[in-house]
Specification:
Chain lengths: 357, 431
């Protein structure tokens, strides 16, 4: 599929690399884009079986410039451009993995991954099980996921729940730059197929970046959530860009004396329920935040698990979800804004949970 | 793409303006078309207005070595197998045929849930398998059992797989006939049609990265599978990535009930090959010698990283699967019988063996009896073999059993401790 967002992506790429270089000058921050680039660069160097494939990832540096400079550095055999057929190159990645390689398969955006969904679900996720552990499929399917800006229904959606639904896949959703690097490296080293969901809006955003994260050995564990902010009045569970609204909301809530605990899921599958449960048993209130659709979404799953667990008895109010609106993404700016969750929605929902007028 | 080109556009540069004559300009453009657009094929202009009518083009010829009676037409094409190999070929084809009959009947008796026979296609399985090296990686569609049998996959394992018991390599995870064996370089069969094609190209690409490893990938598919988008992607990727791969199409006339006349309008599957930049041959799929020669040559070409498409013309004598009754759409059953009587690959090959005095009626009788006995024994043993322990349910979703599944496993154990008597636990292995 030839997407509209090639043009859009190039525009974004240029803006944010400017932004990135400005931020990097301070020395202590890194953009998501650069963090991902570092992870790819290091893992390709570390393991001769790792390679990056996808549309325009080589000479063109990728539609969103995540693979910037890698082709020049590592050459055709490690970074290769594929013809345009998502189901085709996802299938190639599966076959290459069956034969012992460790492909990183970039979807220009996850919007187009639906063309390849059969290869991801029916082959990548299930072959290990169907062969009773004889055939492994170590692939990372990665690329931007979630709502972008001004690109309407077919370029702006969050498929987290789709992939998280399927056994056999691991689904990783980093928020900040350290997570982007540490979790991508862990995903590439993992022997299972991993769907690694980045966020287009966050690519150019700088985040604090520790010396530890700069190391080639920096790897974060898959399957562990992280308590990003400690609080005692309400638990906000979120991931990826939902973190942005949730942290801002927590700050705002603090000004009226509400201490929100913000949990960053980092991984959707395997799912770290223990961290959520522990937090709810302390705060007695739960709000989930995601940019995807509400029906059968990640929030729905979290709440179902809470209700089935001992944490249910600790709830002092019904758990609530903050989600995208249940419509395809409209193009017009005002409608687009109305279709997405914001910081204000999170604040309002927390207040509702705590019965604050 | 357009905007990218226009930034580097050479159209207004002095180079183009410096072409003084029309001929120079033509030459420049023809060279560009040839090198950049047409894969170095010679580009020409024509002043004749003519839309190509594909129905007028000549069909790709069908390569054969023997005639319908099994006689060699051009002796230079005789691969000269020798007695041992010829007998092994014949025995593999007949063993497959007998196993198919027994397992088909067993499904009808409700002893296994599903089966697919290979009737009428034994020649293209064994002919191609014999020409490959056993180290070559095979991706099957589902009707390529002869290939696996040629490589020595034991009868017992076929039966264990169809019963999904504890001795099955797949531990009962996959439905019947979805065989897979790492040892025999045969990838576990995938049910959704044609997913194996791009995967095979991916494996071939991995082989290409290990120079001089003397391995190709051979991927089998049917005429119906060639209609899936995956087939297009695989042909295109194999050609653009220069992969060591053989695409082996078993054109057997039917995709379940859809006849090839409704499946495509062009010159079969071989007709597509040149359009993708694939080396291509159409072969008489019931002439084992022709299939062998074609596959052997295709392997030689593929090893030089030039992908090859083989279309083997054959006929599906059986139903698609046990879920199908082909008499509902193959109304003229006489035609089916004619194919079986006049062009059966096993019979055609047998003529050769008999003429060489390597086989006779007595041997045939003894062999049939022996195979039947062996199949029935393996079948009976598989039926009696215990199923895997129920914990197998949770194994193999990931390389390590995740916490959630461990908890569910414990729950199941507790449940069975109390209510185990209501379950057929005696059919499972004890831990």
């Amino acid at each position: 599929m030839r997407p509209v967002s090639v043009i859009f992506g190039r525009f974004l790429g240029r803006c944010s690399s400017l932004q990135a270089s400005r931020q990097l000058a301070t020395g202590s921050t890194c953009t998501i884009r650069d963090a991902l680039n570092q992870a790819l660069d290091e893992e390709i160097r570390r393991d001769p079986n790792v390679f990056l494939m996808g549309e325009e990832v080589a000479q063109y540096d990728g539609a969103y410039k995540v693979s910037k400079g890698l082709w020049k550095k590592h050459g055709d055999s490690r970074i290769w451009d594929t013809p345009i057929t998502e189901m085709g190159f996802a299938g190639i990645a599966v076959g290459a993995a069956f034969a012992g390689l460790r492909p990183v398969c970039e979807f220009m955006t996850f919007n187009f991954s639906m063309q390849a969904i059969d290869q991801i679900i029916n082959s990548a996720a299930k072959t290990y099980y169907m062969s009773a552990g004889k055939v492994t499929c170590p692939i990372v399917f990665r690329g931007p996921n979630g709502a972008a800006a001004g690109v309407a229904a077919q370029h702006s959606q969050d498929f987290s729940a789709w992939f998280a639904h399927c056994p056999g896949l691991k689904v990783v959703t980093p928020y900040n730059a350290e997570e982007a690097k540490g979790l991508l490296k862990a995903s590439i080293r993992d022997d299972n197929p991993v769907v690694f969901l980045e966020n287009e809006i966050l690519y150019g955003q700088p985040f604090p970046f520790s010396d530890e994260a700069k190391s080639e050995d920096f790897v974060l564990p898959i399957g562990k959530a992280h308590v990003e902010r400690v609080g005692k009045h309400v638990t906000i569970v979120t991931y990826s860009r939902g973190m942005e609204f949730s942290l801002e909301a927590a700050k705002e809530l603090a000004s009226i004396g509400v201490e929100a605990e913000v949990i960053n899921l980092r991984t959707l599958r395997p799912f770290d329920f223990e961290t959520i449960k522990k937090s709810i048993m302390k705060t007695n209130h739960l709000v989930t935040v995601e940019t995807g659709w509400p029906f059968a979404g990640i929030g729905a799953e979290i709440i179902a698990q809470v209700i089935e667990s001992e944490a249910f008895d600790y709830l002092d109010a019904p758990p609530y979800r903050v989600t995208g609106v249940d419509v395809p993404m409209p193009y017009t700016q005002t409608l687009e804004a109305a279709a997405l969750p914001t910081t204000a929605h999170v604040v309002k929902t927390v207040k509702k949970s705590l019965h604050i007028q | 793409m357009l905007s990218r080109l226009s930034r580097r556009s050479p159209f207004n540069t002095s180079i183009f303006r410096s072409f003084a004559t029309a001929r120079e300009r033509d030459e420049f453009r023809l060279q560009e078309y040839s090198q950049k657009y047409l894969g170095y094929r010679k580009a020409v202009f024509t002043e004749k207005l003519e839309i190509i009518d594909s129905s007028k083009a000549e069909a790709v010829p069908i390569y054969r070595v023997t005639d319908g009676l099994g006689n060699f037409i051009d002796s230079s094409q005789d691969p000269k197998f020798g007695k041992e190999m010829s007998v092994k070929i014949y025995e593999t084809m007949t063993q497959l045929n007998i196993m198919d009959r027994i397992l088909y009947d067993s499904q009808r008796q409700g002893r296994i849930s599903f089966y697919m026979t290979n009737f009428g296609e034994e020649g293209n399985h064994v002919g191609s398998a014999a020409a490959l090296k056993n180290s070559d990686l095979v991706y099957g569609q589902y009707r390529e059992v002869g290939v696996l049998m040629w490589r020595g996959f034991p009868l017992e394992q076929f039966m264990h797989q169809c019963y999904g018991n504890s001795m099955d390599i797949g531990k009962g995870k996959q439905m019947p006939v979805h065989y897979g064996s790492k040892e025999h370089n045969f990838v576990t069969i995938s049910s959704p049609l044609t997913t194996q094609l791009p995967q095979a190209v991916g494996s071939a690409y991995a082989f290409k990265r290990q120079p001089n490893n003397d391995r190709v990938v051979c991927v089998y598919f049917g005429d119906g599978a060639a209609s899936e988008g995956d087939a297009h992607a695989a042909f295109n990727f194999a050609a653009t990535l220069d992969c060591p791969i053989i695409f082996f199409c078993r054109n057997n006339g039917y995709a379940i009930s859809t006849p090839t006349s409704e499946q495509y309008a062009g010159d079969g599957i071989a007709g597509k090959g040149p359009g993708y930049g694939l080396h291509t041959i159409r072969v008489d799929g019931n002439d084992l010698f022709a299939v062998y020669n074609a596959t052997q040559e295709a392997r030689r070409v593929a090893l030089t990283n030039k992908p090859v498409l083989i279309e083997a013309m054959t006929y599906r004598l059986g139903h698609h699967s046990t879920s199908d009754d082909s008499t509902a759409y193959r109304l003229d059953f006489k035609k089916v019988q004619t194919w079986g009587d006049k062009d059966h690959p096993i019979e055609r090959f047998k003529t050769y063996l008999v003429e060489k005095n390597w086989w006779d009626d007595e041997k045939e009788k003894a062999w049939q009896k022996e195979v039947r006995k062996r199949v029935l024994k393996a079948f009976g043993d598989a039926e009696k073999t215990k199923l895997a322990h129920f914990h197998e349910l949770f194994e193999g979703v990931y390389d390590q059993v995740p916490e959630l599944l461990k908890r569910q496993r414990d729950e199941l154990d507790n449940h069975l401790k109390e209510y185990g008597e209501h379950y057929p636990l005696d059919r499972c292995l004890r831990k």
